[in-house]
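User: C-alpha cells for this complex, please. No commentary.
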Amino acid sequence: MKAKQWVEKHSFIWPLVGTIILWAMIVAVSGRFSMNQLFSCATLASFSLMLGLGQTIVITSGEGAIDLSGTYVLTLAAYISCTVMKQNAILGILAAVAAGALVGLINGIINIYLKVPAMITTLATGYIVFTIVLIAAPHMNSLPNSGFVKLITTNFGGLTVMTLICLAVSALLAVLLYKTKFGKNLHAIGQKREAAKYAGISVPFTVIATFTLAGAIAGFAGVLCGAYIGGAFQDMGTSYFLPAVAAALVGGTLASGGRSSVMGVIFGALMMSFMSTFLNAANLAPGLQRLIQGAVLVLILVASVSKKD
Amino acid sequence: MKVQENQAPYMELTDIDKTFGITRALQGVSLKLYAGEVIGLVGPNGAGKSTLMKVITGVLPPTSGSIRIAGKEMTGKYGAKEAKEAGIACAYQDLSLCTNLSVYENFALLNVDHKLVSKAGWRKLARQSAKELLEKYFPNNGIDVMASIEKLSLADRQIVEICKTLMTDNLKVLILDEPTSALSTDKARQLHEVVHQLSSQGVAVIYISHKLDEIQLVSDRIVMMRNGQVTGEFDAQEIGTDELVEKMGGEKKAREQKTEGQDSISAEKMVDVDGLNSSLLKDIHMYVNKGEIVGISGLVGSGQTDLLNAIFRAHKKAGVRTKEGVLVNGTIAYVSGDRSKEGVFQLWDIEDNILIANLDQVKEKGLLSSKKSDSLAQHWYDKLKFRAEGIHSPIMSLSGGNQQKALIARGIASGADLIILNDPTAGVDIETKQEIYSLLDEAKKEGKSIILYSTEDSEIEICDRAYIMHEGAIAEELKGNDITVSNIVAASFKDVGKGKKNDKEEKQENALVRLLKAPTTLPVLTLIVMIFANASMNRNLLSYMGFEMLVGSAVPLVFVALSQMFIVVSGDIDMGNGTAIGLINVLFGVIFTGNPLVGVIGMIIFVAAYVGMGALIHIRRIPAIVVTLGAQYIWLGVALVLCPTPGGSCPEWFMAFYDFAFPLIPMPVVISVAAGLVCYYILKRSKYGMVLRGIGNNPVSVERSGWSYMTARLTNYGIAAVLLILSGMSFTAVCRSADANGATTYQMLSIATIILGGCEMSGGKVVPMGVAAGAVAMTFITTLLTSLRIDSNFQTAVTGGILIAVLAIKLISHRKEANK
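Assistant:
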C-alpha cells in the first residue's frame, strides 16, 4: 500500500524504469555498455524535453488544454535565431524567444477572450505560424551561428552544454511551478477554475501567462534545435510533437490538468529518446519502429494516465 | 382525492433513518402513501425533504427502517430499478434532458422500443404523441416539439421534464420537486389540474413546494418536516397559510441574548450596496459595518448567490464603487458551501487547500517556504481541530465537514477584511457547525466583517443583522433578537410587490433571420461564394468536367471530416485520422490490388481496431486525444511495414466507378452529397441516431432512458472507421498510388472542416450536411488560391484564419442570443 502511494506521488518512476529497461536492451543489442549512450540520448532528448515542458504547463492549466502550435513555433524560432544571429548571438536568442512568447500570448488571449477551446486556438495559430515559415523561409538564413554551435556542443565529461542548459531550464521551471505563487495558482486553475476564482486568483492572467511562457520555451527550443542539427528547415518541428506530448504525459502530468511533474517530463523525454535509439540500434525497418513506438506509447499511457475506479 | 377508509397504503415507509457520516439527515421518518392522494410536503430549507425523496426513488438506501410497497416488504433490496418497476417517478429539478435533441426525441428516447430499427414513420408517430402528451396536460403550451431543448425557455423545459416523467408507464407515485419555480401562474394552474387528474386516476402525488398557497390548493394532506423529522401532518382543508408559516418556524430555539459582541461593531461601513439591479436582482440596498455579522436568507433561489457574487466581484477594486453600485472598503475572502464545484482543490492535501489564498504569508525571499507553509497550515489545523491524519492528508479523504473547515481556514487565514460565506455549513455535522460559529465570532471580534448566507434558517440567528430576500429583492431587514426562524420564514413569504415574474414571450423571429442562423448556412454560403469566385477565375470550372475535377479532389476530405464528426459527437476527438487514411491508402492501393481478400480482411481488422480503441478510451477513461495521438504512430507503422516506399496503384474497377460519367451531375458531387445525406440519415433520422447524439450531451439521461452509453460510443467509433476506409479509398483514386505518409495533412484539416461545417467540439451538436459542404468549400478555397497565383504556402494560413473567423462569428452571435 505504502509503495503504491509512493509510486503514485512520484510517477516519474514509470519513465525512469522505461529508460533503464531500454538502456539495458540497447546494451544487449549492441553488445557494449558506455556512459556515452546515456549522454548522447540525453542530448537528443533536449528538444522533446523543451517542447514537453511547454506542453506540460499548458496541459496543467486544465479544461483539456493542449498546445498544437509548439512545433511550428520551434521551426519559426529556429529560422529567426539563425537569421538574427548573423548580427548578434544574444540578440538572436532573444528575438526567437520573443517570437515564441508572442505566439503564446496570442494563443492565451484568443483562448480566454474569444472563448475558443485551446486545442482549436493553437491549431489555428499553428497553421498561421507554419505559413509564415513557408513564406519567409526562402528569405531567411537557415544556417546557424558557428560560435553558438561550438558553445552548445562543448563537452563536459560527456554532457554537452546543451544538455546542461536544458536541465537548467527545467530546474528554473520546477522552481516556478512548485515554489512560487504563480505555480500554485496554475495548479489551482487546472483543477477547478471556479474554485480558483473564489480563492481570489485571476484566471485570465494565469492562463495567458502560461501560454506565453509555453510559447517562449518552444521558441528557445527552436534556438537550440536550429543550432544543434545544423540549420533550420521547414518541417523540423513535426517529428518532436508526439515525443513531447508523450514525455509530458507519461511522467505524472494529468491530462485533465492540475498536476504536473517536471521530473516526469525529463525522464519521459529521455525514455522517448532511448526508445528511438534502441529501435535504430536494433536495425528495425522504419515502419516497425513506428509501430513499436506507438504500441509502447499507448501501453504506457494506459498504465500511467488512466483512472481506475 | 381523499383517502378511503380501510384503504391500504401503496407505499409505506416506517422509521426511516439516514445518516451521512455523523450527520443525521433523516430520523425515524414514517410516511404512508395512498393511491390517489396528494401530499403537500413542506418544511424549511435543510429539513431533509430531498433526502427523503431520494430514499423513495431508491437513489439512496436508508440506514435503517423499512419500506413496503403494495404490502410487500422491500427493505434491503430496494434500489432505483425496483422503484422504477413499482411505478415511482420524480421530475428532477436539475433537468435530465438532452439539450441537443428535440422535444419529441427526448420523449422518444424513453418510450420508443429499444430495438435497432423501427417501422418507418415512427418519427411522425413520436412527434404526434409528443404533441398530444403536451397538449393533454398543458393545453395551449405553444411548445414546438421539433425544436431542440436548448432553444426552449426554462419554463418550457420544466413542462417537458414534467411530461417526460408522466410518460412512465404504470405510474403509481409521482414526485414533483418545486415544479412551479419557473412556471407562470397560468402554467402552474394547468399543472395543478394535471395533479388532480392523476390523483383521480389513482396516482399518489408528492408535491414539494415553498409556495404555501399552492400547497393548500393541490394537496389533500400536508406533511411538515424539520430537522430530518416529520413534525406534523395536517388536513389541507383545515389549516390556514398563516398557521402553517407559524408551525414551520417551530418552537423558538433557546439562544442566549445578544448582548455581548455588540460593541465590536463600529459605525464604519465595510460594504455599501446602493441600488444594485441585474436580471435577477431588484434594487438592492444594503450595508455591512466593520465587525458585524450580517445574514442573508430567504427561499432558495431568491437571488442570494447573485448578490454575494456581485459583492465578490468588487474585490478587484477595493474602495471604488463598481458600475453596479457596490462599494467594498477592503479585501474579500469567499467561502463556498458547494465544495465539489467551487471549493476544494481535489488533487491537493489540507495544507495546499488552506494556503492557496494565503501564499503571500509564507513567502521567503520571493519563494514559497515549505517550513513557513507547514507551520501556518499546522496552526489552523490545530485551531480547527481537524479530524485527519495531519496537514498532508489528501483533502478528498476527509468528511464534508472537515473539508469545509479547510475552506473556512482558507478564508479566515487570508486576513481579509470581509468574509463572504455562501451556505458554509451545507452537509456539515453539528459539532463542526458550532466550531465554525465560534470562529466567525472570533473573526468578528478582530474587526472583520462577515456576510453569511445560509439555506438553514436557524443558522441566521447567530447574525447581528439579517436581510431576508424574496424574488430578487430584499423583503425585510431583521435586527438582533428579532432574528428568529419564525420571523425569517414569515419574511421569506412576504410579497415584495415589485418585480412580478413576467413571462417573456419569445419574439417570433422572421424567416430570414432563422435561415441566417441555421448551422448549415455558413458552410453552404462559403461553398457558393467559392464556386462563383472560382468560376470568375476560370469559366471552364462551371462545366461538367471542371466540376468533376474540382470536387473529385474534395471527396477524401468529405469522408474524413464526416468521420471526425462521428468521434466529436461522442465528445471525443481523433488526432490520428491522417495516418489512418495513409494506412487505408496502403491497404487498398498495395495489398488489395495484390490480393483482394487480404485487403478486405485488413480493412475489417482496421474497423475492429478503431472500435477497440474506443473501448480502451471508454473503459479506462483515458482522454481520447491522448490515445488517438498514440494510435497515430501505430497506423503509420503498420502502413510503413506494408509499404515502405510509395508505390502501388488504384484498382481499375474503382477508378471506373470513381470516373463514372453520371448523367448531368459529376460522380464526385453525387458521392459527396450521398455521403452527407447518409450521415444525416444515421444521426438525425434513424432511431439509434438519437442515442448517438444524446451521449455527447447527457450520457446520464441516455442511460436512464435504458440505452447503453458504451454501445453507442463504440458505434460512433465503428462508423468513423468505415468513413475513414471510404476516405482512404477515394484518396487512392485521387492519387492513383499509395503512400503511408501521404495523407497526414487531413488530420488538422478534418478538425477545421467540422468547425466550418457548424459542429461544436462538445455537447453532441453536429451538422452532417454542413460538414460535407464545408469539406468541398475548403477544397475550393485551395483551388481559388492556386488560380489566383497566390503562393500555395498561404493555404495553411487561410485555413487557420478561417477557423478563428468562424469561431469569432459564432461567439458574436452567441453573445447576441445571450443578451436577448
